[in-house]
Amino acid sequence: MDRQTVIGFILIFLILMGSYFFNKPTAAQLEEARRQDSIAMIQAELARQEALVREAMEQQNLHQLDAQQQENLDIQLNKQFGAYAALVKGENQHYTFENDLMELTMASKGGRIASVRLKDYVTGDSLPLILFDEETSEFAMTLITHESRVVRTSDLFFEKVESANPMEFIFRLNMADNNHLDFVYTLQPDNYMMNFDVRGQGLENMLSMGTNSVDIDWNVKMRAQERGRKFANRYAMLQYKYEGDDVEKLSEAKDSHKDISSRLSWVAFKDQFFAAVFINKDGFSSNELSSQMESEQSPYIKSYMMRSQAAFNMRGDREANFQFY
After folding, report:
1. Neighbour count for residue 114 (Cβ, 10 Å)
2. Which helix (H) or strand (E) covers residue 8, if one does?
3. What is the DSSP code (8-state) at residue 109?
4. pLDDT for residue 39
5. CATH number of the domain encompassing residue 310
6. Is 247 among the domain residues?
7. Per the domain annotation, does 284 fall within a domain?
8. DSSP 16-62
9. pLDDT < 50 positions in the chain
10. What is residue 280's predicted lDDT score, i.e. its pLDDT?
11. What's the pLDDT at 35?
12. pLDDT at residue 38, as a whole number
């Protein structure tokens, strides 16, 4: 073996060894990988539990549960929801709440607005103009319980509470010992603005002591109301307003996602001519916004997502005030 060949082998060996050491993951990288694996495992387990609960609830709705299945369901619900387990079982009741301009369908599951019809307008096909519907929208507040469980209001069944004001609609989440969470919706005549107040009583006994804010998820698929889809796509967009600043938007021409740490005054989900706007005078924080295009064949034009935090006083001496428009 000549001298040049030996030198060549030595160089190859040195390159391989250098590559190994330079590409070897650091301790911090290994720890981060283990953390991500743990998060993925937890998320997978939560997804598995939720799937089991959904399946069991569907069977219960079909009156197919025997005594053992019912016991297993109760165990699963108690494991996942703790003191809130009884609030997961129920029947989704629907109510009409309206003024001269719009008709809202209110759903007891989640205590939310399920759909909105604008009375003075129709679609390009002369059909009732539904701004959004129950199947393709979601509204949820995430609660951290005193047992350190994560509970979403969209999984819980509220009760309708009668009000002396015909323009006020109250959904109540009844908890133990007369503690409750109220979602209060108030309309005005001839006005598209609706107040949405969140009131708590005695929640310091039910929620984590560190609770001073709630996570809010609002997701809507906006319908294609007009025939000119390409033109409509140009004007359908997610807009948002910084506190004391200008209005901004996500791209209307492609899928778009943005994390915003600054406080926002409102977020709007728009189609070509109409919009659903969520307003918080105290500001939304830790915002995550997303806009996704829908296929040409879809009856929907875009999918919008908002995930934010809002201040919340669990003692009940100060309610959280929002508005929908």
Report:
1. 20
2. helix 3-23
3. B
4. 47
5. 2.70.98.90
6. yes
7. yes
8. HHHHHHHHSPPHHHHHHHHHHHHHHHHHHHHHHHHHHHHHHHHHHHT
9. 35, 38-39, 42, 62
10. 95
11. 47
12. 47
Tokens of 238: 């997610």
pLDDT of residue 62: 44
Residue type at position 64 = Q
Q: From the centroid of its chain, how far is CA 177?
A: 29
Give the pLDDT of residue 250.
93
DSSP 132-157: E-STTEEEEEEEEBTTS-EEEGGGSB
Beta-bridge partners for 268: 239, 277
Q: Look up residue 295 and give its DSSP letter.
A: P
For residue 170, the enclosing domain spans 87-324
Residues 6+ apart with CB under 8 A from 86: none
Amino acid found at 222: M
Q: Give the number of other CB atoms < 10 A from CB of residue 311.
A: 14
75 assigned to some structural domain: no
Based on the fold, state whether residues 150 and 292 are members of the same structural domain: yes
**Both tokens of residue 55?**
């399946």
Q: Do residue 159 and residue 306 come from a single domain?
A: yes
Verify that 48 and 92 share a domain, yes or no.
no
Q: Are residues 93 and 214 in the same domain?
A: yes
Both tokens of 325, joined, read 């428009």
pLDDT at position 42 is: 47
